[in-house]
């Protein structure tokens, strides 16, 4: 009140008032400093959290600081709880023509009681299936005719590109505690536990666009190494989805000449200025043929997705693709963090190289092959343009071994269970019939082995704030001649895959 008078008052009362204010400020300041020393956390916290940059308030506040530090810290912690499945909203792009068939892929990984999400179709489905409760909510995309231009008659690219912003506009706001919007196709198989593990590494309050590139180099050149290939799935943090929803419709009209929906999304991301954060566990699967080579030598990263399941051979022999994924799901449910994680070791008594891709395959090869070779996928597949040359892929690959003695003996995952008495998983891999190859090496023949048994401790925290490292494996003595027994787990101090171990 007195401050108002200052302007018009005499100089003496002004000096008196200045002194008074100075004294008050000094005392408050000293009190404040003292308090900062005696209870540093409390003072720091209050100043930091003060949303109002009001000097008077800040100086007065120390006296009103709550002294219960535990309470403050607890409040902060509950807000920062780690990302869970219910922080995600899934947006799946499909079309009414294929939905009846493709929904079977979604059913494999969708958990209706734990996940929220939508499948976006172009039109209503006449023949609704009865078990809708097992699937995400169906939605019909809004009319995209305004995006049409003379060069581009394909509305589906626009429709699918808009799936994220249409989902956002369903009314998600901060109160819903949504952190990530995840986009996928109807022929995408997602390992959602691993998706969560990947997303936990990133701050959902910032602008993140996370996904994977294509396996085919030329696809990346055409559609961009900065593009998340949507079939492999990608995640957009909440604030970025908001920014995208605000500008996407106008933005996309500028890019009507772009061919795919993924490319159009990237064009808008480029306008916002957000690059792709690449995670190698998202698999677009822009390859043809057999993806065995990729899954047998997966990068040291959690396996998040597989796409184009109708276009590649079933990932397990003698079953349909759907049947294959059901087998893979058994391993996924046993130990998702370890799914398809490779480990390499040697059978020192028989001079064999062993490569385990946990929950998928075990390979036995004659001779000692270095880790750098074994971690490179064998080209059992073609690129998107049916070429099989190594310079056609966006990652290192190797050709089949030339020497018939080194043909791999392949065992495929068939069963798995958890053994509570040893606290380990037990997985069994059965031999895939080999073509008979002639080999003159005077060395034990891996053809005798008909099963591989793998024990492994589960490690759900394998990817939590840890530098990536390949697991180690050890060949254990076996009581039965036809069974190879291997233990897989974290490497012990000093343990490496030593090529000269036998020399
Ligand atoms: C600063 O805080 C004082 C006391 O709470 C208040 O009277 C004043 O209006 C505030 N000024 C501003 C700019 O917020
Ligand atoms: C401080 O807050 C915590 C959590 O609310 C409570 O358990 C504790 O009793 C409080 N301590 C004091 C001294 O008030
Ligand atoms: C719905 O579709 C399924 C599979 O496409 C078919 O077997 C079934 O007969 C259809 N039902 C009706 C009522 O059309
Ligand atoms: C979309 O809108 C256009 C023009 O507004 C209309 O001609 C067309 O029939 C609409 N399409 C659908 C599927 O409703
Ligand atoms: C669990 O492991 C123990 C010790 O290796 C073995 O004796 C037992 O048969 C196993 N149980 C199952 C269910 O695999
Ligand atoms: C696949 O089926 C063929 C013929 O039915 C059989 O010979 C072979 O053993 C089967 N392979 C596996 C891995 O089950
Ligand atoms: C394993 O290989 C080494 C050299 O590579 C050779 O000296 C040794 O005899 C081989 N052992 C067996 C059991 O084949
Ligand atoms: C089993 O192993 C996990 C780590 O893989 C560990 O967290 C857990 O405590 C163990 N449980 C028992 C009963 O030993």
TrEMBL record:
- Which InterPro entries did the record assign? DUF604 (IPR006740)
| Residue ranges crossing the lipid bilayer per the database entry | 16-34
Looking at the keywords, is Membrane present? yes
Record organism: Lithospermum erythrorhizon
* Entry keywords, A to Z: Membrane, Transmembrane, Transmembrane helix
Q: Does the keyword Membrane apply?
A: yes
Q: What's the protein here called?
A: Glycosyltransferase
């Amino acid at each position: 009140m007195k401050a108002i008078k200052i302007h018009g008052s005499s100089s003496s009362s002004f000096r008196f008032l200045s002194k008074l204010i100075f004294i008050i400020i000094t005392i408050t300041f000293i009190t404040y400093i003292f308090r900062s020393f005696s209870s540093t956390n409390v003072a720091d916290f209050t100043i930091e959290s003060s949303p109002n940059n009001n000097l008077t308030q800040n100086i007065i506040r120390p006296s009103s600081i709550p002294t219960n530090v535990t309470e403050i810290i607890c409040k902060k912690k509950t807000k920062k709880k780690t990302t869970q499945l219910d922080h995600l909203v899934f947006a799946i792009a499909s079309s009414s023509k294929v939905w009846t068939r493709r929904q079977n892929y979604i059913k494999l990984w969708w958990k209706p009681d734990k996940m929220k999400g939508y499948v976006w179709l172009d039109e209503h489905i006449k023949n609704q299936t009865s078990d809708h409760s097992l699937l995400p909510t169906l939605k019909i995309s809004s009319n995209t005719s305004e995006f049409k231009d003379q060069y581009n008659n394909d509305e589906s690219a626009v429709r699918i590109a808009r799936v994220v912003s249409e989902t956002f506009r369903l009314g998600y706001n901060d109160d819903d505690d949504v952190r990530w919007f995840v986009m996928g196709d109807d022929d995408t198989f997602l390992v959602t536990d691993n998706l969560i593990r990947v997303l936990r590494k990133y701050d959902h309050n910032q602008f993140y666009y996370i996904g994977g590139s294509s396996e085919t180099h030329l696809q990346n050149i055409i559609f961009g190494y900065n593009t998340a290939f949507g079939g492999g799935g990608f995640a957009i943090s909440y604030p970025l989805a908001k920014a995208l929803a605000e500008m996407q419709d106008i933005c996309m009209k500028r890019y009507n000449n772009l061919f795919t929906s993924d490319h159009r999304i990237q064009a808008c991301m480029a306008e916002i200025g957000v690059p792709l954060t690449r995670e190698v566990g998202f698999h677009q699967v822009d390859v043809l043929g057999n993806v065995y080579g990729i899954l047998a030598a997966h990068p040291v990263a959690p396996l998040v997705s597989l796409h184009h399941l109708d276009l590649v051979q079933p990932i397990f022999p003698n079953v349909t693709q759907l049947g294959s994924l059901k087998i893979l799901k058994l391993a996924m449910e046993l130990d998702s963090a370890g799914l398809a994680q490779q480990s390499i070791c040697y059978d020192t008594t028989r001079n064999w190289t062993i490569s385990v891709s946990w929950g998928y395959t075990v390979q036995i090869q004659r001779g000692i092959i270095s880790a750098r070779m074994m971690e490179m996928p064998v080209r059992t597949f073609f690129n998107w343009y049916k070429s099989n040359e190594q310079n056609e892929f966006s990652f290192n690959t190797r050709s089949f071994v030339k020497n018939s003695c080194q043909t791999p003996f392949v065992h495929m995952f068939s069963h798995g269970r958890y053994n509570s008495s040893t606290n380990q998983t037990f997985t069994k891999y059965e031999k895939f019939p080999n073509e008979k190859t002639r080999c003159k090496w005077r060395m034990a023949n891996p053809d005798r082995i008909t099963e591989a048994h793998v024990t492994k401790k589960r490690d759900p925290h394998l990817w939590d704030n840890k530098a990536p490292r390949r697991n180690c494996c050890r060949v254990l003595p076996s009581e039965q001649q036809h069974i190879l027994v291997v233990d897989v787990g974290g490497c012990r101090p000093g343990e490496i895959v030593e090529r000269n171990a036998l020399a």
